[in-house]
Design a protein that fits this description.
The chain is mainly beta. 12% of the residues lie in helices and 47% in strands. Strands 8-1-2-11-10-9 form a six-stranded mixed sheet, with no helix packed on it. Strands 3-6-7-5-4 form a five-stranded mixed sheet. A hairpin with a 2-residue loop joins strand 1 and strand 2. The mean pLDDT is 85.
């Protein structure tokens, strides 16, 4: 069965999220820092009156510091019922792939393999598919929820 992916760039690699997990993509929004937040939480954004915690995916994956550029975007997603923003280097395209073009994640990758659903092949590109529910463990999900509740 075909699957639609939002493909984004992060530290020279391509990643993909199921389109059903993506609420919207925003170009830029002022991020308010939150004291004592985990290192990978950049802060919060006010999106049409709703306060949403923002995660720097580079920091979360341990692949460098989040340097913003003119192509940087915030992808608004839902992680286990909690809305969050993910800072990425660029959002490239929406593609459709067949399930049979997805391979299991290799045991060794640059990021923790627990986050990875698999690798999708599209023409000559490899796209790392992210499992949003596994992006944060239970403790970190609770932290995000608390950040949202404190500010709202």
């Amino acid at each position: 069965m075909p699957k639609q992916l939002v493909v984004f760039g992060l530290a020279e690699e391509l990643y993909g999220l199921d389109i059903f997990d993506v609420r919207e993509v925003i170009k830029d929004a002022p991020i308010t820092k939150i004291p004592n937040a985990p290192e990978f939480v950049e802060g919060v954004v006010n999106l049409r009156g709703k306060i949403i915690p923002v995660i720097d995916l580079k920091k979360r994956f341990g692949i460098g510091k989040g340097e913003k550029s003119k192509d940087s975007r915030i992808i608004i997603v839902e992680i286990s019922g909690q809305e969050a923003g993910l800072i990425v280097d660029s959002v490239d395209e929406v593609i459709t792939i067949d399930d049979n073009s997805i391979e299991p994640a290799p045991p060794v990758t640059t990021i923790n393999a627990a986050f990875i659903e698999g690798l999708a092949k599209k023409e000559d590109k490899l796209i790392i598919l992210i499992k949003l529910d596994l992006l944060l463990d239970a403790e970190k999900k609770e932290v995000l929820k608390n950040i949202s509740q404190q500010v709202n």
